[in-house]
Amino acid sequence: MPELLKIQNLEKSFYMHHFDKTIQGCSGVSFTLNQGEFIGITGKSGAGKSTILRSVYRTYLPTAGSLIYQSDQFGEVDLATASEREILAIRRHEIGYVSQFLKVMPRVTAIEVVQKALVEMHYTREEAKEEAKKMLTHFQLSQSLWDAYPQTFSGGEKLRLNLAQAMVKKPKLLLLDEPTASLDAATKESVKDMIVQLKEEGTSMLGIFHDLEFMESVIDQQYNMKQGMMEEGVEA
Ligand SMILES: Nc1ncnc2c1ncn2[C@@H]1O[C@H](COP(=O)(O)OP(=O)(O)OP(=O)(O)O)[C@@H](O)[C@H]1O
Question: Is 49 touching ligand 1 by the criterion CB < 6 Å?
Answer without folding.
Answer: yes
